[in-house]
Amino acid sequence: MAILSKSEAEAILKKVIAFSKADDIDATLSGGLEGNIRYARNTVSTSGLQDTLTLSVQSRFGKKVGSASTNEFDDASLEACVRRSEELAKLAPDNPETMPSLEPQSYLEVKGAFESTENITPEFRAKVAEDSIVPAAAKKVIAAGFFNDNTAFQALMNSRGLFGYYKFTVADFSVTMRTEDGTGSGYAVRSYSDVSKFNSAKASQIAIDKALMSRNPRAIEPGKYTVILEPAALLSTVDASLLGGMLFAMDARQADEGRSFFSKKGGGNKIGEQIVDERVTVYADPQHPEIPAAPFAGDGRPREKMMLIEKGVVKNLFYSRYWAEKQGKKPIPPPGGIIMQGTNASVEDLIKDTKKGILVTRLWYIRPVDPQTLLFTGLTRDGTFYIENGKIKYPIKNFRFNESPIIMLNNLDAIGKPERIGNSLVPPIRVRDFTFTSLSDAV
Questions:
Q1: Please, is 81 exposed, middle or buried when counting C-beta atoms within 10 Å of its C-beta (0-12, 13-18, 19+)?
Q2: Cα(first)–Cα(last) distance of the chain, in Å?
């Protein structure tokens, strides 16, 4: 029952709306079939398939709001869920920022589901693990990885007649390879809506090669270096990230209230100001064939193709419905994915054109230091290398860094070809004067 068709989801939601006695009701159905396989120490440890289906309801009486959810779908359970949300709403204090339900909206048509991913079998998942474990063992390298595939849908409806439905697929893969002596580590990550584009053997080999190359690293002095950040270093799928930290700080209310980097001295925000190198253009597009995204946000606001930063200039910030109404602006939801424009240059091309510098495979444990300047700290990991005269000369020990993506993107030296990381497309970049503050013994 996890994957409901558009008509099936609509029928359940209409029934839920009909049970309502509140001034407004918003209901959301979401479900999916999620398969996975996990391995460590060159051995499969877990594998499974999860079937989920959840209804979430939000009822409003004036400015009072209550929420409830259920995973039971007989009529009595559906009505009980609605009644529970109404009871909680009546007990809640007024929320002055509560907005009424949206009127019906027009949504973009997005192809987010692919049969290749929907039809993944346990045998396919086992082959992904085999493509890591067998070559790793042959090279005396230890593999630890995770492959996860999901076929899912989202549907929403409210008492004012709004309805939206979106079905999608995604397959995510990550693997870490460690040498047996514990001195070398490599990493690779891949994500696809259409899993037919995924080559698990190739991705695993990249991680194996990096693990072998990074054995017995040398220590070099911390300081400011020319650095090549691979896509997984620029935008992580798990930890916070430098690029993500900048983009998800683009909230209009925080800026207008003087609480973020995007606040303008004297009041207001930095829309229209150049903040980074003119080669930086970042936008969102739910219909992008490589990173399709839901055409609506969780509250039903439509997502559209939207420029965030164009040639270094801030073009849009995200506005909640409440703040947009207060400021007389269009309510703009955060995007489902982002695209940073690049060139056709590969990481290898960037290395060949580097006289002296450092190649960073991945950043992790990234934490904010100062939201006003967007200063972050974190560590390099899983393959850090010294470059000289266009070639990787030797592996080096990992660093802690202190850096702001704003400063980093103002020190931009070169941009490469974008690759999918999570649900975004980002390129490798080369930047000047990246700040490393201390050495790390982590591999």
A1: buried
A2: 44
For residue 427, what is the enclosing H or E element? none
* pLDDT single digits (tens) 22-49: 999 999 999 999 999 999 999 999 999 9
**What is the rounded distance in angstroms from the CA atom of residue 376 to the CA atom of residue 405?**
8
| Long-range contacts of residues 299-303, Cβ cutoff 8 Å, at least 24 apart | 299/26, 299/102, 299/333, 300/26, 300/101, 300/102, 300/105, 300/156, 300/158, 300/162, 300/164, 301/102, 301/105, 301/331, 301/332, 301/333, 302/105, 302/106, 302/107, 302/108, 303/108, 303/333, 303/335, 303/336
- Structure-block tokens of residue 112: 């987010």
Answering whether pTM is above 0.85, one says: yes
Report d(CA 404, CA 411) in Å as an integer: 11
Q: How far is CA 174 from CA 148, 164, 339, in A?
A: 9, 32, 21
Q: From edge to edge, which strands make up the β-sheet containing 306-310?
A: 313-314, 306-310, 282-284, 339-340, 424-426, 419-421
Assigned token pair, 101: 């339900």
- Report the candidate in 265, 266, 321, 393 with the shortest Cα–Cα distance to residue 101: 321
Residues of the chain with pLDDT under 70: 1, 237-240
Distance between CA atoms of residues 430 and 348, nearest Å: 12
Provide the residue type at 426 as one letter.
Answer: V
